[in-house]
Structure formats: C-alpha cells, structure tokens
Specification:
This protein has six helices and seven strands. It is of the alpha/beta class. The protein has one domain: 3-Layer(aba) Sandwich (Glutaredoxin), CATH 3.40.30. A seven-stranded mixed sheet has the order 2-1-5-4-3-6-7. Helix 3 (69-87) runs parallel beside helix 6 (164-178).
Length: 183
Amino acid sequence: MRRAMVAAAVTVSLLGAAPVAHAELKKGDPAPDFKTQASIGGKVFDFSLADALKKGPVVLYFYPAAFTKGCTIEAHLFADAVDQFHARHATVIGVSHDNIDTLNKFSVSECRSKFAVAADADRSIMKAYDATLPAMPMANRVSYVIEPDGHVWYAYSSMDPEQHVNNTLQALDDYQKQHPGSN
C-alpha cells in the first residue's frame, strides 16, 4: 500500500500539466492552531503553532510524502534557503502524513537538519488547512505564510515544488514592508 501511495505521489508530482489546486484558506483567514510531533535533525519534539508564532511568522508547507522526487526537491530548496527565512524572523515547518520514524530520517537527509518536519498521520492538520489531495491519503503541496497574530498572510498551491520557497520568501518581504519592525 505504501508503495502505491508513493508511486501515486511521484506520478502526480511529475505531471507538469496537472491542474493546480487552490488553497481554501485565504489571506486574513484564521490559521487553525495545532500541536504535533515533529523532527529536526532526527530528534523528535512537540511542535506548537501558537508557540512558533510568538517568535514571528511561520511558513507552514504541506507535501505529499517523504522521499518522493518532488518532496525531496522541495525539502532541499527549503533547506538551502533556511538562512533567508531566519533573516526574516520566520520559522519553517513541513507537514506530511508520514510517521515520525520516517520523518526522523527525512529531517536529516533531505531537510539537512535545517528545519522541522511534522507528522500528521490522521490528516487532521491537512484537513484543517484544506491541504489534502482528493482520493489520496496524503497532502497536497500547499504553502502558507502565517502572521504572528495567527492569520493567513499568504497561500500558494502547486504540485510543482520549484516556486514554493521563492513565493513564501516574497510573501514574507511583502509582510515586513507592510509591518515595519515586526518579527
């Protein structure tokens, strides 16, 4: 079953002509709070969105499955840009349906121990953010920038992993221009 899900995710991520899904949460919508297990550098911890927002904006991105081609590309891109996110006082966290043991490995190898990835085995976080793939038990590729006050600043949905980092960095720049001196 896992192989079939991974194969489906790879197929979906390779389809350049696949229709782009649109995130349902829009700018200004309240971002659903959540707590879950996450891993950074192979170490498990309890992640709380509310706690992360106390430090500044949060880039919350959903991805279909660890170790698939598109998700590996996206993780590498976020890892390469993590210093740019930190310069904007932003926390990056990826979320998938994978279990925490898989994410421990993914956090080290593909995320290069630079940012956290969180487990959403029951898909409750994905559902709250309208980030599920129709007819598949995995996440759509959706990125959100969440303001420290807990509202969505920006949402982007595309199965192509290439623009999620650039788009969220630009959204953070736009946020900071409209909120000078903010974290």
